[in-house]
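#data-curation
PF: Archiving a pair of folding outputs for the training set. Convention for this channel: one message per protein, sequence first, structure tokens after, nothing in between. First:
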Amino acid sequence: MIFYFTATGNSKFIANRIAAAVSEPSINIAECMEKGQYSFELSEGEGLGFVVPVFYYGIPMIVSEFLSRLQISATRDYYSYAVLNCGSTTGDAGRFFKRLIKIDAVFGIKTVDNYVPMFSIACESEITERLDNAEHHADNVIDAVKKKVTGIHNEVAGRLPRLMTSLFYPLYSRGRKTKKFRANGNCDNCGLCEKVCPRRVISLADRRPVWNEPRCEICLACLHRCPAAAIEYGKSAGRGQFVNPRVEL
């Protein structure tokens, strides 16, 4: 059983690849939260995996909330692992799992950086190269999972991971302010942003998106998946959009 959280498809892309290789289901954390579903039972020999993106060298708040409520029942002891995906480095994001749930191994995979408030989306050739590399590293994780390897196996933690997380993650956990979102004149009132928001904080007022809560996940699903490129956040204008082309959202 593999749980994932995704906004632009990177985590689902990895989770589906692992799930297919180990013949286990992949489950969307956002859908579980919306349904209030937190109790799960592992079948005989089934493992417990998590594939999540890294936000500010930590994990999304929705993932932390889900882990704090998750109840797993199993007839025997089970193997558990977390796969962190990032555009650059993960910092010490793996420690959030260790605080909230039994975890045997932590892995890291670099994918495509999509935080456009700070960076532009890579060119098509670089995206292809990064996704090819991510598939290769996912296959390495699959081999490790099948062997039930334990410990920290994260080659993309970066320098001073604990310091980076302690410095920058509070900016995310205490921030996440929706007031930086806006819809530009390209908006065609399709309503997709309302549907893809994992926190359900977006609604249409006068046929335009409105963020109804002061905070959200800042996953940028609304921005990247807008077919009209109408949503901006901070200084994101002109920096592109990204949706993983190797997975269906």
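PF: Second:
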Amino acid sequence: MTDPTNGASVGPDGRLRCPWALSAPEYLDYHDTEWGQPVTSVAGLYERMTLEAFQSGLSWITILRKRENFRTAFAGFLPQQVAAFDEADVERLMSDAGIIRNLSKIRAAISNARIVADWGQGFADVIWSHHDRSRSRPQTLKDVPASSPASIALSKQLRTRGIRFLGPATSYAMMQAAGVVDDHLAKCFVLMPPSHSRGG
């Protein structure tokens, strides 16, 4: 059942959620416990950025179902470790059926790791500089944009540093996943923490 006033849907426990959370079993826990929660660590943000880049052109559920495989393949998304990957690692990743075997995206993930590892905390600072505390939650899914002026600006900043596969739409998806923007619908039961103090 969907609340006609703002598009939230009633979940199996009777609580209102963003409708997409009910479209697959894996989405329920991801929506309730992770999506939109503040991620402030460099490694956590590198992971979100990399997964969103791999998702481009695919459905998010495909990435979510392969996430643990990605974590194993990419050394837990620790930028310093991924930055040390060489051609042997590229070959290993291209033969790993547990992830998305896209050569351009794999090379970009390694290249991006080198930039992030060198950049350090500044990487996280740039992403969180686009956090807008005054922004209201969307009422319906129609109110959720594919990109925003902030994601356009963030994409430009990151690409200026050499980050690849992160256009405005992918940047916005990363911002949603990492809690830089809160796109849980207005009546969704999930509450945004008061500050971005949570790591991950």
